[in-house]
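Figure 6 in text form: structure in, sequence out.
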């Protein structure tokens, strides 16, 4: 009996040893369809921290992402198709990354509920009957650089906190960004156009006590409404472009105070239907000289006034500077393109293009960049010549350069002030004085 019991114990130990699974010490790379034929099968097999790479599709499926991992499209053709139903990706975990995928043909593109610390970036989301993104009761989400087309509600956030919506391109829908009862979110640098799916189609809508949000560098164009506020308060809304919308804004009468500019010389927003007269400058627009700010305020409501509306659209450009990123702003009635900086050549360059008349640019440059590139001394050239007119000033941490030129296409450069511009006249004067002194000494 004892021998039999000992034999059974040894046999059980051997079987148990054979069933021990290998525990991975580090996250793994999983490839679809190489390792698993479907995205969902790869997720089911993955553990926290794994990276799932999705090769070209399409994959006809609905994905439930219930683990903290990365889902990355490869080769530019990784497509998940909802086949006209349901949700393409439902996020049921925090700390996830979804990037470089095309999601198409469903009711919902991405659904996120009660999650934190998610990044969704560089995805193409199209043909969603209801929502491109539906996000509820979540915080610290980053929705970055996605392209959303032909979706009724492109991005909706309900009861969310401390999120970032940056660099998304949204076209052809009913609503661009709908923000409901949500707070402390940054809505930055999004391009929204052609929201004409219904009579109240709107680019950006803040409703039901959404407060303490910042809206900056967004463009809303060619939509039925540019921006719509209902009982939204204490939001900071400046340096946005509202261009050729049927109605630039809608404010319900009960909408309380919001801030539409941040004072002079930075100013407020660009409204394409506003009178562009800019003969004066200063906080109260009662000083001589143009400053790219309209002389008259733009009135949205009793407690909502853009006191310093811009006289041209604002263009924002990122400039890496060591461990930080600075931003150069160009406010202009020209089309701005080909912006770049060159630290070696100490150069800032852009093209300004317009049809007829006098063009203007106001270039707002952080003083850290002015110091790094030009040690504080610079000159501005239009096609390697002096501009038609120029004035510059410094206030706070920013240098402002306002210049004009006759419209066509121009290359505008800002470079270090050449020493010869200062030294050469001095040398000429010294030479003349020396010559005169010699002649006087002759007998």
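Output sequence:
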């Amino acid at each position: 009996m004892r021998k039999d019991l000992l034999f059974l114990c040894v046999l059980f130990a051997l079987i148990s040893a054979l069933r021990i699974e290998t525990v991975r010490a580090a996250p793994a790379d999983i490839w679809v369809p190489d390792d698993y034929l479907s995205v969902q099968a790869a997720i089911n097999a993955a553990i926290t921290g794994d990276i799932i790479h999705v090769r070209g599709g399409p994959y006809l499926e609905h994905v439930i992402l219930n683990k903290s991992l990365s889902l990355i499209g490869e080769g530019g053709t990784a497509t998940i198709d909802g086949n006209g139903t349901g949700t393409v990706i439902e996020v049921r975990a925090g700390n996830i990354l979804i990037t470089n995928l095309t999601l198409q043909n469903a009711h919902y593109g991405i659904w996120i509920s009660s999650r934190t610390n998610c990044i969704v970036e560089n995805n193409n989301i199209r043909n969603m009957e209801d929502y491109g993104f539906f996000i509820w009761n979540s915080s610290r989400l980053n929705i970055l650089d996605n392209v959303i087309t032909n979706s009724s509600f492109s991005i909706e956030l309900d009861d969310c906190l401390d999120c970032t919506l940056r660099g998304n391109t949204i076209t052809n829908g009913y609503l661009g960004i709908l923000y409901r009862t949500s707070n402390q979110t940054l809505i930055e640098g999004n391009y929204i156009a052609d929201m004409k799916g219904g009579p109240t189609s709107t680019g950006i809508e803040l409703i039901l006590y959404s407060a303490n949000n910042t809206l900056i560098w967004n463009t809303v164009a060619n939509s039925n409404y540019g921006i719509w506020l209902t009982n939204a308060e204490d939001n900071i809304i400046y340096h946005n472009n509202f261009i050729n919308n049927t109605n630039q804004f809608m404010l319900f009468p009960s909408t309380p105070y919001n801030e539409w500019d941040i004072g002079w010389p930075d100013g407020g927003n660009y409204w394409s239907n506003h009178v562009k007269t800019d003969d004066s400058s200063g906080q109260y627009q009662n000083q001589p000289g143009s400053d790219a700010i309209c002389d008259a305020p733009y009135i949205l409501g009793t407690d909502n006034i853009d006191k310093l509306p811009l006289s041209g659209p604002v263009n924002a450009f990122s400039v890496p500077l060591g461990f930080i990123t600075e931003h150069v702003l160009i406010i202009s009635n020209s089309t701005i393109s080909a912006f770049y900086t060159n630290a070696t050549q100490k150069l800032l360059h852009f093209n300004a293009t317009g049809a007829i008349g006098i063009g203007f640019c106001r270039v707002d440059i952080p003083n850290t960049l002015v110091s790094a590139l030009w040690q504080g001394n610079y000159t501005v050239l239009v096609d390697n010549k002096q501009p038609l007119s120029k004035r510059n000033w410094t206030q706070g941490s920013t240098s402002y350069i306002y210049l004009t030129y006759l419209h066509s296409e121009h290359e505008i450069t800002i470079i270090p002030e050449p020493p010869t511009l200062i030294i050469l006249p001095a040398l000429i004067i010294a030479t003349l004085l020396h010559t005169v002194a010699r002649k006087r000494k002759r007998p």
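Caption detail: The two ends are 140 Å apart (CA to CA).
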